[in-house]
Design goal:
With 293 residues, the protein is of the alpha/beta class. The protein has one domain: NAD(P)-binding Rossmann-like Domain (Rossmann fold), CATH 3.40.50.720. Helix content is 36%, strand content 12%. The chain is built from 8 helices and 7 strands. Helix 1 crosses helix 8 and helix 3 packs parallel to helix 4. The longest helix is centred in the middle third of the chain and has 22 residues. The termini are far apart.
Length: 293
């Protein structure tokens, strides 16, 4: 009989080695390395033969979602930035290893035409869309409003909010009853950091939009939920945060560590599956401790 996993030791604890990356960062340079479920996750056919669009799928939470969805039987349309092609190819290998199909489709989710093309690609290649995961996001840490360039502020909203709007608007009419839309929000929705002013604002908007979209989707049998992670060890951390914060990232949680992406992906799998047929309009927090409301 296997023993239950101690949450205190389910992932590495800080302090972490000194490390910096250029945005958007890469998995290969992360120290300690990340668990996306390549070895640790075992599928049970909960998403058998479904088609999922996953944005921001080359690294971090999106990468883990794509891998775990594939292990559950889903085919994937993977969205990511062109400069992250190498990481995306690694996801492709994992999905194919799980015996599923994957379409790599790079681009900027904040561009309307590109976002719509993800939907048309899914329909052309797989003939349907069962699941949309709006996970792609941009963040940058700034110490004051004066340090936030106006184009960066706009880019944050265009990526995090407009991207979700474009792809959801295009996908919902194509989805049949039982379809699922899943959004990635954040603990920043409930406990915003001044240094992440733009990012936190977008995540609060995503939580609000999730509840509104759930009402609209219910008319056609489509469920809409969001997951609100706390600190998660991904390339965004060393590529957008100051070194002192990277070193101790996640130490403030009850378990004194950040989450591993696979720990979040398990929640997305549950919400995407028929095990969650009576769940819509919810924000599932996975913050390593109580979420302040």
């Amino acid at each position: 009989m296997s023993q239950a996993q101690d949450p205190r030791t389910a992932g590495p604890k800080p302090p972490f080695p000194d490390q910096e990356q250029e945005h958007p960062g890469t998995e290969r340079k992360l120290d300690p390395p990340v668990d996306h479920g390549e070895q640790s996750y075992v599928g049970h056919g909960r998403l058998q033969d479904r088609t999922a669009i996953v944005t921001g799928g080359d690294s971090g939470i999106g990468r883990a979602i794509a891998i775990c969805f594939a292990k559950e039987g889903a085919d994937i349309v993977l969205s990511y930035l062109p400069e992250e092609e190498r990481d995306a190819k690694e996801v492709e290998a994992q999905v194919e290893k799980a015996g599923r199909k994957i379409i790599l489709h790079p681009g900027d989710i904040g561009d309307k035409n590109y976002a719509q093309s993800l939907v048309s690609t899914a329909m052309d290649k797989f003939g349907k869309i069962d699941i949309v995961v709006n996970n792609a996001a941009f963040q940058m840490s700034r110490k004051s409003m004066d340090e936030i360039p106006e184009d960066e502020f706009e880019h944050t909203y265009r990526t995090n909010i407009f991207g979700l709007y474009y792809i959801t608007k295009a996908a919902m009419p194509k989805m049949k009853p039982g379809g699922v839309i899943l959004n990635t929000t954040s603990i920043q929705t409930f406990r915003p950091s001044g240094e992440l002013l733009a990012y936190a604002g977008t995540k609060a908007a995503i939580a609000n939009m999730t509840k509104g979209l759930a009402q609209l989707g219910a008319k056609n049998g489509i469920r809409v939920n969001a997951v609100a992670p706390g600190p998660v060890w991904t390339p965004l951390i060393p590529s957008t945060m100051p070194p002192e914060k990277v070193k101790n990232f996640g130490s403030q949680t009850l378990f004194e560590r950040p989450a591993q992406p696979v720990e979040l992906a398990r929640i997305f799998v549950f919400l995407a599956s028929d095990e969650a047929t009576f769940i819509s309009g919810e924000i599932y927090a996975a913050t390593g401790g109580p979420t302040p409301l």
